[in-house]
Amino acid sequence: MADVRAVLPEPCIIPSVRNVTRALLVLIVLALAVLLPLVLSGSAELWQAQNSPSYLEAAHHYQAAAQRLPWRTDLYELAGHEYYYAKEYLLADAAYQKAFHRHELTSDGWVAWGDVNYLRNDPKQATEIWEQGLAQPNPSEKLYSRLAQIYQEEKEYTQAAEYLQRYVSHHPEDASARYRLGLLLTLSDPATSISELISASQLDPDFDPAVQTLRSTLNLASLNASPSERLVITGRGLGLVGEWELALAAFQESAKADENNAEAWAWLAEANQQTVEENRIEQVHETAKEYLDRALSLNPNSSVVHTLRGLYFQRIGNNRDALTEFQAAATLQPDDPALYVSIGESHSKLGDLIRALEAYQYAANLVPEDAGYWRLLAQFCGQNNVNIENVGIPAAQRVVVIAGETADALDLLGWLLSLDSRNVEAERTLLHALELDSQNLSAHFHLAMLYLQTDQPALAQDHLVQARDLGSREAQAVLDQYFP
Hints:
mainly alpha; globular
């Protein structure tokens, strides 16, 4: 019989298995001894992040938690958000980059990452991030509005309109976005522009005055057969609502479409001056003068060209040449009251108050039912202490008749009456203005000055304080002088 011991396992094998198991247990215990404190520390950091009193503290804790809990790669984006809120844009950018490299950026993360680069004055990087974010699954709709804004700032108006149209298709109730889209489309698609502008004003009536101006402008432009003239009309309308960057683009295209269009060159000069940056004023003035000289050579009989040349000379302080240009414009267009106001202003700056007054009176009498020109006449008399009794007060009374007893109209009349030392009438009129509008800064100030003149310091101080609190620097200066 064979020896059964020959087929038995070696006695040392069983102890070996036990040793390996024991070794594994030791390794697990050691691993836990190392990792458990990290996990506990990471959890503590996470709790502190969620309960921090400041954005910056929260960001630091999220960052620390992400380092201790390597499987929680989403924490880097959370750290980025907190740095963003704390306005630590460089740190936010670094945190978002870590989230990106770990494939953990959410749709909002792509938006925020671009934001911090934009806020760091790196619009190119911001644009690249936002466009990359659009390529991700389920991108945020906010990316469309961000890209529309940045392309508009870069004067890429066609691309800006395309992105904004995509945003509006998801947010048709956003009145501001629809108004912006309408503005952008004035240059390329006037019909759709009008539709978007009307929708914006229906959603928010505050847009209605500008929308009505632009709607009239675009309808008027559509009646002109010349592409260059259509763009001039469109640009003028954009300028009227303060959109001078878009107006500049319109005038540039107009001049390209017809290089002999004098008014296109003149308006191009004006738009350049309206959009000038502080550090480029002299350069832009030189360019504007070149455009205006070209406009004059193309059409010396254009009242628009002479008017815009007058505005140019007025800006650079050459009131003599400004007066010459405004007078030339008025000769060509004698029924425009605004030209006589400009003539009056130029005479005033040259020290000829008699001719200035005559010009303001002529302007007001050209449009006797327009309160605006009577107001300008009354203000001129008050500011220069000229013919207050015979011209200024009757002009202010005319404003009240035409405009009605509004707070502004009564304030103007009360001020003129106080300058004429008709103190009882002035006080009554100014108090009535404040009954209609207790927050009328100008009425408070004029009433305070009246009380100072009539030796009523307590009442004067009260109204000066109210005027100051409403934003009057002039009231603050008077307070410092009389009530230090």
